[in-house]
Amino acid sequence: MSSATAGRVLIVEDDPVVAMVVEDILRDMGYEVLINITLEHAMFELDDGEVDAVLLDMQLRGKDARPLVLELLARKLPFLVLSGADQTALINEFPQIRVLPKPFGKATLEEAVRDLLGRPGVATPAPAA
């Protein structure tokens, strides 16, 4: 990730309303955003382009996103699970996974993304000196 850009975040979410809300928040933070609604398309996106982080729902059109989770762990790519379902089993199996329960607010998502990527988005103004 170059210092000239905030980075590229892939949203893997099959609910268009949730995807659009998350996209708007990330764009306002200065991130480039890609959206995929299926597991298959998300896997292709990982292979085809530079992605700095992934935000994903664990249930995509009735399919469990576990294969994508395993791929992201293998690639050591930062990701955040956005889920309205109980993810206790997933967290117990993979304690390093970050989960943001739905519903979440704008400030909570912004904080989670900043923490995930280890830096503020470019749209966040620096404090005055």
From TrEMBL:
Record's keyword annotation contains Nucleotide-binding: no
Domain Response regulatory: 8-117
Top-rank lineage group of the source organism: Bacteria
Alphabetized InterPro entries for the sequence: Bact_response_regulator, CheY-like_superfamily, Sig_transdc_resp-reg_receiver
Location of 4-aspartylphosphate modifications: D57
SUPFAM superfamilies xrefs: CheY-like (SSF52172)
Chain segments annotated as transmembrane: none
Keywords from the named record: Phosphoprotein
Protein name as it appears in the record: Response regulator
Organism: Rhodanobacter umsongensis
